[in-house]
Amino acid sequence: MKRLVLIIAAIAAFAFSSFAQLTASDSRGISIQGIARDNNGGIYASKPITVVITVYNGPSVVYKEKQTGIMTDIAGVFSTNIGIAPLGVTLTVSAGTAFSAVDFNAGSLSITVGVQIESGVEVNVGTFPLQSVPYAKLATMATNASNATNAIHATNADNATHATNADNATNASHATTADNGVPIGTIISFAGYAAPAGWAICDGSSHSIYDLNYAGLWSVTSYTWGGCCEHFNLPDLRGRFLRGVSDTTTNDPDKASRTALYGGGTTGNSVATYQGDSYASHQHIDGFAGGNATASYGVATVATVGNVNGQSGTSTINHAYTSFSGSSETRPKNATVLFIIKCK
Predict the structure, then answer these.
(1) CA 19, 24, 30: angle at the middle one, nearest 5?
(2) What are the angstrom distances between the C-alpha of 183 and each of 54, 257, 270, 326?
(3) 285 CB-side CA count, 13 A
(4) Does residue 42 sit within a domain?
(5) Which of 35, 25, 30 is nearest to 4 (CA)?
(6) What is the pTM of this model?
(7) How many domains would you assign to the chain?
(8) Residue 14, domain extent
(9) pLDDT tens by residue, 262-319
(10) Torsion of the alpha carbons at 318, 323, 328 and 329, rounded to the nearest 10
(11) What are the percentages of helix, strand and coil residues in the chain, rounded to 5?
């Protein structure tokens, strides 16, 4: 039977979803995040898991819920909110009435996290005390969270609604970092044929800047890969190798002539530019017995030939250029993957 190893990111801090002007009936929860691995240490990727969360006041259970159908991503990462089921996830409360009803003025609160996969045995990951960040629930009585004792690290807690770790969020509502820690705009190679949820294939397709599936990506890339007005292009990496931008180095001697594949895209020495195939300038020397003829590749020439078979003088060489050989392109050994980009 499989067992599950779970790594909870910053579990001792339990990043809180909001600080300021919370009420006793506030329905917003506490965000948790984890990485699911099987008992062999392998990533438990793109599969459903069940998470059981129990809130204790000392030894007494004050709230318990089960969230069934939480999906891990391609890296085994999952995230959810205590008290709030993500879309497509079933939340069942077996103790207490609702997470919003938990009394955060109570004594010593702690949370136990358990995980279950494939109808197996529930694995108790551990019990973790609620520390300073979740106790910002007490900011209920504060009209301005900057004055709340328990909101010490929030510079602008009103805007920390979407912060996974509000301790360090100055204005986390504008953060481009995804809930699972992968920044929007990240490009990775993928072994599948279709992009997983939250990712898009780098196929150069055009999308509306108002499409909620791509608006976050547009805020990162703008029109650098092409587009204008209300539409922008994704990177088109089909059949292409990636290359780091040359910046101030001379590693790309032709960096100034780099082009845009789609209208409105960036050109020159910058991220999101394209370059056609080429090979460095060179010449081929066509040797002849006793002669000294040279020829540029693909060009016939007239050359002075020395003593060849007892003859000397100027002769027209009909085959001074080298013969065609090789494939239709110059390339290293390679294997194909699907380039995908994080878009939400």
Answers:
(1) 45
(2) 31, 30, 20, 42
(3) 5
(4) yes
(5) 35
(6) 0.45
(7) 1
(8) 4-174
(9) 999 999 999 999 999 888 888 776 555 444 544 444 444 455 545 555 555 555 555 4
(10) -110
(11) 10, 30, 60
